[in-house]
Amino acid sequence: MQRISSYEDFLKLKNRVQSIMASSERIISVCGGGGCSSKDGKKIASALKDELGKKGLEEKIKVKLTGCHGMCSWGPSIIIYPEEICYLKVKEKDATEIIEETILRNRIVDRLVYEDEKVGKTPHLKDIPFYNRQTRLILGYNTKIDPQSIDDYIALGGYSALVKALTQMSPTDVLEEIKKSNLRGRGGGGFPAGQKWETTRNAKSDIKYVIVNGHEGEPGAYMDRAILGGNPHIVLEGLIIGAYAIGARQGFIYTRHDAPDLLKNIETAISKAREYGFIGKNILGSGFDFDVEIHLDIGIFVSGESSALMRSIEGKIPEPRPKYIRTSVSGIYEKPSNLNNVETWANVPLIIENGAEWYSKIGTERSKGTKLISLSGRIKNAGVIEVPFGMSLREIVFDLGGGTGNGNDLKAVHFGSAMGGSIPKELIDTPLDFDACAKLGAPIGAGGLLVLDEKDDMLELVSYFLDFLSTESCGKCVPCREGIRQIRKLLKKIKDGSGTYQDVETIREICDVQKEASLCALGRTASSPLESALKYFWKEFESRLVKEK
Amino acid sequence: MDYLESIIEKYSRRRNFLIEMLMDVQHEKGYIPRESIFYLSKRLSVPVNEVMRIATFYKTFSLKPKAEHVIKVCSGVSCYIRGGREVVEKLENLLGIKVGDSTPDMKFSLELSSCSGRCASGPEIEIDGEVYGNVKPDDIEGILKKIG
């Protein structure tokens, strides 16, 4: 591989890799994503390759093991390009038939095709409601590229934004573009990314850091894995652009320890980017130096909190600290450190490439762009989707998600996992929007959407989240550590049928103290699911309370 | 202590990779042996109590040897509402141990793992790296028999 040191070099490389990609008559994309890897994506890919080999077609038709396609309940899925034929629930033994029928005879294998009551049998991606209602700006790459191949990403336009930023824009131009786009942080808070970048950029220090938060510890949230595992380069590209705008020369990617394929893809991405000179000294001849290292979460929820995460990058216990001074001013080793979530970084190349004006046309007035959502719980089409802000939750749950899929009625949707809240079915027409959802007490969080049906018990759900948080809390501050324990005790009493109205009052009081006095967001929002349940599903609590005489 | 030296070298003796080093020790040995804590402390010039604090902070780390087969049940919320709790109860009953313990013959350890993101196929258990999706309590006896 040659080092790319100018705009012209890059164009030559892009032309070359595009013509290589165009030389395949067809590409068969096999989902090897997180949700499917337990379902034999690797075996299917190699069975397809074997079949093609037997027919002498391995040069003309390429098989790619890709990241998550998104439709996890129907996995493993394969997509045949250019026709975009989608086969679902594919098994290793289907390989022969797929090659003989579809590749050699252009015939559809009927039993592997999507089917529902509304649209009937539909083999093409563009006719499947799960896909055609989405706006897959980020996820769109997933079905087309081998996550281990930087050339695949470049052929589809990858790294063009980095080249544009470094050869045609000043760091201030980049910052202004991000600010103008109104990109808001996708990790939970929804804080304007440009404003955060500016704080770190303006902080007085020679050393600054940028960080990708790929911790994703929320139960039921798995969209960041879909991006990082399926196309790590888009995140890396965003990170390098951000570092350039902010003035950081060192970056960190913080991710999970328990997903070996994910880690391998990130490591490969970094080393390929280094070979092309997108990381290292004097990137693209611009004089800008930047390097990245990976750190691992060893499995505790609190280490996804920004100040805790930064401690753990220093090799210390991930305990949060009070944020009188923001981490964007004093973070890793007390240096200004800008942390954004995986999805936030992945949006950056899109904005730089297409401009803030283009970007701000997508979404609602105050929530711009698309949002990745992972659908779980009582839902027919569980998986990862990407939709524009403003889409109604009804559309997400019913049109894309296919409803509960078990014959039971919808009861509520729960956003934001253990730090979020539930929205009852009566409010299902609420648009997907940071502020609209937060106002209802169910902030989007990182985008994990749990669907509940009429048989689900809200007290059980709330207890689950509190049990989870009690083991994931670092234990440093009293309101969080002790507060959660006391609430759990009272909740158990209510579940057992001996709780009183006074117990509910006590719970509310503890919730108030937790919100006021906890050190970090984990403690401050620990009671959110409980409070939203009390607000919308009070009957479920009341019916269990001891009736006062 | 050769394995410890090569782990330390993998991270160029850098103190800020202490957590990753302990992870590698756990991977290599299946738990964190007492002597490795002292060894890392000395080689990295980090007080023993600090290494110890990390080793005891994370539930992923174990100071006790694990059994031959480690059963991990996904503790994610989607698995939970779809019957994960009943799966845990069944495992506890069949093995006669609680989550976090190992059977006296050191054949099985039972653990909860954080959400695997395979919510579409929950409840899920993972045994020695092999993933079993859509598990029902009645399936468990068969799965355990298959393993030994």
Strand order of the largest sheet of chain B: 2-1-3-4
For CATH, the homologous superfamily of the largest domain in chain A is named as: NADH-ubiquinone oxidoreductase 51kDa subunit
Architecture per CATH nomenclature, i.e. the level-2 architecture of the largest domain in chain A:
3-Layer(aba) Sandwich
Oligomer: heterodimer
Uncertain parts of chain B = none
Structural class of chain B: alpha+beta
Quick description:
The complex is a heterodimer of chains A (549) and B (148). By secondary structure, chain A is of the alpha/beta class.
Explained architecture:
- The complex is a heterodimer of chains A (549) and B (148).
- Chain A has 549 residues and is α/β, with parallel strands linked by helices.
- Chain A folds into four domains: 24-134, Glutaredoxin (3-Layer(aba) Sandwich), CATH 3.40.30; 150-359, NADH-ubiquinone oxidoreductase 51kDa subunit (Rossmann fold), CATH 3.40.50.11540; 370-452, Ubiquitin-like (UB roll) (Roll), CATH 3.10.20.600; 458-542, Up-down Bundle (de novo design (two linked rop proteins)), CATH 1.20.1440.230.
- Chain A is built from 23 helices and 15 strands.
- In chain A, a hairpin with a 3-residue loop joins strand 3 and strand 4 (85-87).
- In chain A, helix 19 (478-495) runs antiparallel to helix 20.
- The radius of gyration of chain A is 24 Å and the shape is globular.
- In chain A, 55% of the residues are buried.
- Chain B has six helices and four strands; from the N terminus they run H-H-H-H-E-H-E-E-E-H.
- A four-stranded mixed beta sheet of chain B has the order 2-1-3-4, with helices on one face.
- In chain B, strand 1, helix 5 and strand 2 (108-113) form a beta-alpha-beta unit.
- The longest helix of chain B has 19 residues, at 77-95.
- Chain B is elongated.
- The mean pLDDT of chain B is 94.
Features:
heterodimer, A: alpha/beta, Glutaredoxin, 4 domains, five-stranded mixed beta sheet, four-stranded mixed beta sheet, B: 148 residues, alpha+beta, 4 strands, 47% helix, 12% strand, elongated
